[in-house]
Amino acid sequence: MRRPRIASLVAIAAMSLPLLAGTTTPVAASPRTTPRLGTQLAELKGSDTATYNFFGGSVAISGTTAVVGAPGHARGAGRAYVFTRTAGAWKPTAELKGSDTVAGDLFGGSVAISGTTVVVGAEDHALAAGRAYVFTKVAGVWKQAAELKGSDTVAADTFGSSVAVSGTTVVVGAEGRASFAGRVYLFTKARAGWKQAAELKGSDTVASDYFSDSVAISGTTVVVGAENHAHFAGRAYVFTKVAGVWKQTAELKGSDTVARNYFGDSVAISGTTVMVGGSSQVGKASRAYVFTKAGAGWKQADALKGSDTVAGDGFGWSVGISGTTAVVGAPYYRKKAGRAYVFTKSAGVWKQTAALEGSDTVSGNVFGFVAISGTTAVVGAPDYHNFAGRAYVFEV
Q1: What is the mean pLDDT of residues 151-165?
Q2: Domains plus CATH for the chain?
């Protein structure tokens, strides 16, 4: 799951917490075409969230269960909140924290869920060595099952900056590793617990590439973004597990990406379809790129854009895909009010079918941190109401 980019600091008591900020300046555009809005099902907030909690800075969903991170909670110790849809209503069912997290750890900066397994990253734990925490639902109760770290991670590696999970495989990014060249660590669930199974890096990644800035997994395929590669043009790398070994099988780039496009800013995968966001297009509206697996390789199938997005909207900052439905966040739309766009594949063609806004979001809320499962999307707005944050559930 894509986490908020660290670009400015907000003082909270005695500690400082990264605040969502961007590398581009929103461009005013009026009038704009107003696409059809999706149906909002719920507005979520934590039972104890307050100013500077950044609730909605990370979101994930699997079936009828959603997870929302609030990395600013308790002076940056952080929390993750679980919500479940029961009898048509979304209700809070758990509040998660790491067994050893303390102020400044940013637990909840990244979240992921698959079935009854939740993974939460805390990239600043232990002098930013970082940790990832695994929670499982047993007899209706969510309990911590493991605390993960990389076999060679040290201070400033930010292990947990991104997380993903599929079945019994957990993926954890450490974008700070090796002078921000970045690494990805894979863990599998065994009878004795969760064990590290692999450590991945891009075939041509170097210092400051931010490999693992975003990660995604579906079955035996992992996708990793490296937004700073090649003068910030960016790349995404595909790894596949063959005969028990994880190997890089593709290096993706957009057909029109150039320096400072940040391709790989966000990644998502569903089956044999990969989506990669690039949140800057240098003077024009940015794109989200769709790739499909063809034979032994991956080919670009489309480059999507919002019907009314312009340069600086951050379209592609966050992406999600489930089957033939995708959702793309644009958190800087209209003075950072934010918007998310829904695309559906029909007869082999991806078309925009809806645009999403929170029922009460306003300028500065940065609505646009997205996740999707089936036809249900969750969108976070971490800067809502003095950075307390909100998350919204939609039928798409």
Answers
A1: 98
A2: 6-395 (2.130.10.130)
Number of helices (H), then strands (E), in the chain: 6, 30
Both tokens of residue 26?
């929103």
Tally of CB atoms within 10 A around 91: 12
Could you give the CA distance from residue 242 to residue 240 in angstroms, rounded to a whole number? Answer: 6
| Across 160-165, average pLDDT | 98
Q: Provide the whole-model pTM.
A: 0.93
Name 190's Cβ contacts closer than 8 Å, sequence gap at least 6. none
pLDDT tens sequence across 258-307:
999 999 999 999 999 999 999 998 888 999 999 999 888 999 999 999 99
What is the spatial distance between Cα 176 and Cα 277, in angstroms, rounded to a whole number? 21
Count of other CB atoms within 10 angstroms of residue 86: 10
Sort strands 169-174 and 159-166 into parallel, antiparallel or unpaired: antiparallel
What is the mean pLDDT of the segment spanning 317-344?
Answer: 98
Q: Compute CA distances 352 → 30, 79, 325, 389, whole Å.
A: 21, 34, 10, 27
**Count of Cβ atoms closer than 10 Å to residue 35 Cβ:** 17
